[in-house]
Amino acid sequence: MISRLFYWFKAKNGFWLWTLVSSRLGTIILSFYKSNVMDSPASPPDFPAPSCPLGDAPCQFIQELQTLRQEVDLLKEQVRTDALTGLYNFRFFSDALPLEMERASRSFQPLSLIILDIDHFKGFNDRWGHELGNRALSHIAQLIGLTIRKLDFACRFGGEEFVVLLPSTDLRQALNVAERLREIIANTPLTHDQAMITITASLGVDEYRGSHSDSPEGFLERVDVWLYQAKHAGRNCVKGPPAKSVDAGNTVTPEEKDALFGAFGVDK
């Protein structure tokens, strides 16, 4: 009699998952495995409509497996999502930042980071209450989602702070994104009963390139310094290092031009 065994099933994302089951359910799963897998080709097949080993309709065990798949997908989403705002959470950001920095280094593409902090949020909570404060956080999260691209990562960093990772985005572009965020937040008040509550935010911006030697922590600290300057400049503003002007005639360095001319045998 089988008391325990591991079985596998294909999840929605295409991965084959191993799960420990026991007792009678284990015996049923093993029977299903033998009849549908061991007698089939070597590669794991896809079962769009598996048959019940007991011949029951509907099959209790197949329904349990489908429920388990849905619960696994839900747990995976909850692990990386902030429950209040629906944005990615700090845990996801902590994992994503070093990966995106490495990708930027390998692809020779810039990576920009924005830190956004809601102005005077403690006073907001003291005046309007924490329930409306939570609504304000969700309100800001929705505005961020409306402003950024699908390839960008918006995360709730903690409390009233948010971060936005902008892959393949240089400093000048990131400053423009941050300014759009500041404007849409300031110009889209939160409605409460008959009141229109204006909310503002301060933002710090900086970029990372493959030539930089920052660690993820160092990059984050650089951006945080600019956020600190935005707050001390009166809030409701964007601060970052000066963006270098782009001159179309000088986007290629003299050394690169020499290499290009030499490769084609052209005299300058």
Identify the overall geometry.
flat
Tally of helical segments: 8
CATH names the topology of the largest domain as: Alpha-Beta Plaits
Number of domains: 2
Query: Topology as H/E string?
Result: EEHHHEHHEEHEEEHEH
Labels describing this entry:
268 residues, alpha+beta, Alpha-Beta Plaits, 9 strands, 46% helix, flat, disordered N terminus
Your description of this structure?
It is a single chain. With 268 residues, the chain is α+β, with helices and mostly antiparallel strands. The protein has two domains: 4-41 and 53-80, no CATH class; 90-242, Alpha-Beta Plaits (2-Layer Sandwich), CATH 3.30.70.270. Helices cover 46% and strands 19% of the residues. The protein is built from eight helices and nine strands. The chain has helices at residues 23-38, 60-80, 90-107, 121-128, 130-147, 171-186, 216-232, 254-263, and strands at 4-10, 16-22, 111-118, 153-158, 161-167, 190-192, 195-197, 201-208, 238-239. Strand 8, helix 7 and strand 9 form a beta-alpha-beta unit. Mean pLDDT is 80; it is low at 1-42 and 247-251.
What is the element layout, followed by pairings?
Layout: E1 4-10, E2 16-22, H1 23-38, H2 60-80, H3 90-107, E3 111-118, H4 121-128, H5 130-147, E4 153-158, E5 161-167, H6 171-186, E6 190-192, E7 195-197, E8 201-208, H7 216-232, E9 238-239, H8 254-263
Parallel strand pairs: 8-9
Antiparallel strand pairs: 1-2, 3-5, 3-8, 4-5, 6-7
